[in-house]
Amino acid sequence: MNSLRCCRRLLRVVLLVSLSYCLLLVMCAPAGSAQRRERWQWPTLSPVPVASSFAPPVHDWLPGRRGVTLTYPGGSPVYACASGTVTFAGQVGGRGVVSIQHETRGHTIWSTYLPVTPSVSVGDTVTMGAQIGAVEEGSQTLHWGAKTGRRTYIDPIRMTMGRPRLLPWDDVP
User: What is the pTM of this model?
Assistant: First the structure.
């Protein structure tokens, strides 16, 4: 029983030291040292209902949802979520697809949109909010994906949120 109590105390100390170190790093960082990540906007300009959320597979070869499916009817305009360069605009498996390469804080992120009838071409430079096409007629949804490498998919909705910040808890004695 003493060894269990000792392990718990040690775990508490380790957690407290780790948390203190993290808080120290955040508090001591110069205000301008972190580059700001450009927040993405929704490809619909404003949030719409999410029909299927981001649910990546454990391994790349397994099935999963590598983006989000938004409820957005055919004919509706689709907008670039951030500034970048169009790397693909055409058909894949009989469906229209647009892919845009974005440079964010020294990292490359690609966004994809389908099924879309493109109004842009490969090589076009687009700004955030520029119309890149329209949801194909007959569809009731828009798939929106994002990835950071050949196979590392990320939740595009998280890119619309700001950087999380710890706020002071003034009510603690």
Answer: 0.71
